[in-house]
Write a structure and sequence with these properties.
Low-confidence stretches: none
Shape: elongated
Number of strands: 17
Distance between the termini: 26 Å
Number of helices: 14
Radius of gyration: 32 Å
Strand content: 15-25%
Length: 415
């Protein structure tokens, strides 16, 4: 049967190939969306890595993650440096990195922190932050740039930048009395780190010496910075702090103890849990694309059945020859079903090979451009189930033309 079937399909190579390509393209779309979704979710959940908890003012965990990790929105409150120092003394903490938010530069967020930020904060699968140029800041007048900031604003090591007061650019609110020198540019990570500017906490505090209630009271140019007392630039408050614990087994107990801190209303958010919760909201968009892919596959299956039905009238001579050589109506109906099965199998194999090849060669480009790292694999168990459903649907839909062939040839045989 298979030999006769392949010869029959070869005689109708052009329409059969078009239907196969159409079905394969729809499967490529479905498989690509599935793998991009998985890569996006993994990248989303790994926007920050190596951080066991984020300490911030008591608020929604999603809100805290949004403005500390994704640099979206504004902090509702700050926490005192005294509280941060108290927490830092805990025996279960391995390291703690404070950050202060609030200012910007030409639309990009400024993050004031300590130099050890670049040592402890990681991304992806626990990958460290590395530099394409220069090194991290070490002085209060130095700045480090994310890759997107440097690329889009054409900055490099040695460039001078001025910071704008507030997270939104506005006329007359620039810190134009003090400039920062760029000392380093980070390699691209595909995370919000690429779109951030990093300053020293003391430099950030220096910027605001002459400001009160969001307005400049006096210029730093009128101050002899060398005459300032040593503790004048120690920040009184910070926005949040990233924490690494000595043992991950203590994370829930640590979070509970932070919530019960009596000196100030603070909380500790576990990034992994908060990111999963956030993805459950953001991931709804991908569900819509998956639905669209299934609709396209359904259309392709309908086109395949339509082609088989349309070709039946043109295959009268072929069917007559088969009948003359002793083929039964069941044999002819089985040939129609097998034809849809062969088309489905060829489409599935083609889709797997194409998507896997593209994944292999384009992973680095996707990671650099979009921060997406689809995992390289031939096929997963979930994908086998999906293709099984598609193949079964194709076989079931081919029962219509198979029944038509069976009834027609059975009627002719009885006649």
């Amino acid at each position: 049967m298979l030999s006769l079937l392949l010869k029959s399909m070869r005689s109708r190579i052009i329409p059969t190939s078009l239907v196969t390509i159409s079905l394969m393209a729809s499967m490529v779309l479905l498989l690509s969306i599935e793998r991009i979704q998985q890569g996006t979710e993994e990248g989303f959940n790994q926007s920050i890595s190596g951080v066991d908890a984020i300490i911030g003012p008591r608020s929604s965990s999603l809100e805290l993650v949004l403005y500390t990790v994704f640099h979206l929105g504004r902090p509702t409150n700050n926490i005192t440096t005294k509280t941060i120092n108290d927490v830092k003394q805990r025996s279960d903490i391995s390291w703690l990195v404070p950050i202060a938010l609030g200012d910007s530069h030409r639309g990009y967020r400024v993050i004031a922190t300590e130099p050890n930020y670049f040592q402890h904060i990681r991304y992806g699968n626990n990958q460290p932050l590395t530099f394409s140029k220069g090194a991290p800041f070490t002085e209060l007048s130095e700045a480090t740039l994310g890759s997107d900031v440097a690329e889009k604003l054409n900055y490099s090591v040695g460039s001078e930048i001025q910071i704008t007061h507030g997270s939104i650019e506005s006329i007359g609110s620039k810190h134009d009395d003090f400039s920062f020198t760029v000392t380093g540019v980070l390699n691209k990570t595909g995370t919000p780190i690429d779109q951030a500017i990093f300053l020293d906490l003391k430099g950030y505090e220096l910027l605001h010496l002459g400001w009160k209630s969001g307005k400049k009271v006096f210029s730093l140019e009128d101050i002899d910075l060398s005459s300032l007392p040593p503790d004048a630039l120690n920040p009184k408050t910070v926005t949040a702090a990233f924490v690494g614990l000595k043992s991950k087994l203590t994370i829930f107990n640590f979070s509970k103890n932070i919530r019960e801190y009596t000196e100030e209303a603070i909380s500790a958010v576990i990034p992994g849990i908060a990111l999963s919760e956030l993805w459950s909201i953001v991931g709804l968009v991908d569900k819509g694309f998956q639905l669209l892919s299934w609709i396209i596959i359904a259309i392709s299956l309908i086109a395949m059945v339509t082609l088989i039905i349309a070709s039946l009238d043109n295959r009268k001579q072929e069917m007559t020859i088969y009948r003359a050589n002793g083929a039964s109506p069941k044999f002819l109906a089985a040939m129609v079903i097998c034809e849809s099965l062969v088309i489905g199998l060829v489409a599935i194999i083609g889709a797997i090979i194409l998507v896997t090849a593209v994944t292999y060669f384009a992973t680095s480009q996707l990671n650099l451009a979009l921060g997406i790292s689809p995992s390289f694999k031939w096929i997963s168990l979930d994908e086998i189930k999906v293709f099984g459903i598609i193949l079964l649907s194709g076989v079931l839909s081919s029962l219509i033309p198979a029944a038509m062939v069976f009834r027609k040839n059975l009627h002719q045989a009885l006649s």
